[in-house]
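We modelled the chain as a single entity of 167 amino acids. Its sequence is:
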Amino acid sequence: MSGTRKDFAATLVLVRHAAAKPATPGQSDFDRELTDGAAEPLGDLGIEIFFTAFATAVFSSPAKRTFTTACEIANGYGLTPPETDERLYQAAADTLREFAFRKLNEDESPIIVAHNPGISLFASQLAGVTVRFAPAGWAAFGFEGEESLSGRRLPEVIEINEDWADR
């Protein structure tokens, strides 16, 4: 588990949804569920994030696997249930960036739960290194000052955990 969290003007946590079952015949990608047992440890992930980064709200793609992941994380962290936004479903890195910086500039410190490849690409852009999230992988970033909140300067990497579920 991570150490004591550091104070920042704002923080951003990016999470890839937990492991999902393959689509069954006739089932849409949107309706895929988590694999058996994948949701159970996600409350612990919420607790780990609590001790790593301050957050004010959880936002999620409305896809079933992503929303389930976000609900379990929010519960473990002690936050209200997640808000869904259709723009987060299979979002590209640029869409995630726009969404995240809008929330950061609305005085939110969001946890955003979304899909690969967009969530890994956005984390890579913020970290300045390649990030490849496995299911339930996550990263936390700290923002200080106008330059980092506007995206003109990279934030501080608080933690990157690409394969949390395999810990």
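As a brief sanity check on the tokenised model: Helices lie at 42-52, 64-77, 93-104, 118-127, 145-149. The mean pLDDT is 93.
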